From TrEMBL:
GO terms for cellular component: membrane. This is Cytochrome b6-f complex iron-sulfur subunit. Keywords: 2Fe-2S, Disulfide bond, Iron, Iron-sulfur, Membrane, Metal-binding, Transmembrane, Transmembrane helix. Its cofactor is [2Fe-2S] cluster. It comes from Candidatus Kryptonium thompsonii. SUPFAM superfamilies: ISP domain. One of its GO terms (molecular function) is 2 iron, 2 sulfur cluster binding. It holds the Pfam family Rieske. The chain crosses the membrane at residues 9-35.
């Protein structure tokens, strides 16, 4: 039997380590694909506006990161709606004159409360949980959890 040289041993060790690493990464990525989120979602609240910034009955466009949202003061109760249409994801816009949200893609109409008045959307606009504390309006957003590495 031929004795393994030091060079052959090191080459085999490096190749074996590489193959093992590739296999572990492959399994890890499959697990990430199958279970993209870890555990129950967690939420944090963020300031979205000052309470006195929006008058009774008014709807105002606000930005949160790269999202455009609508903050509404309906009968003294604050609501935050997504601007993503629940039909196919176009951006709805607030029409002050008509007091409605309108989606230009398939002419959907939502009322001030985000409910569908006409058009193909299957459900109301997505709404964020809102709290008012002191002078500020807070919105609850889901924290993104991921596998952290790679
Ligand atoms: S995407 Fe808004 S109505 Fe179709």
């Amino acid at each position: 039997m031929k004795k393994e040289t030091r060079r052959e041993f090191l080459v085999n060790l490096i190749m074996g380590g590489g193959i093992l690493s590739a296999f572990v990464l492959f399994i890890f990525n499959i697990a990430k694909y199958i279970y993209p989120k870890l555990g129950a979602p967690t939420f944090r609240k963020v300031v979205i506006a000052k309470a006195d910034e929006i008058e009774l009955g008014q709807v105002k466009e606000v930005r949160f990161g790269d999202q455009i949202l609508y903050l509404a003061n309906i009968n003294g109760k604050y609501k935050v709606f997504s601007s993503i249409c629940t039909h196919l994801g176009c951006r709805v816009r607030w029409e002050e004159n008509n007091q409605r949200f309108f989606c230009p893609c398939h002419h959907a109409v939502f009322d001030k409360d985000g409910k569908v008045l006409s058009g193909p959307p299957p459900r109301p606009l997505d709404e964020f949980k809102v709290d008012v504390e002191g002078r500020f309006v807070y919105m609850w957003v889901e924290e993104k959890k991921s596998w952290g590495i790679i």
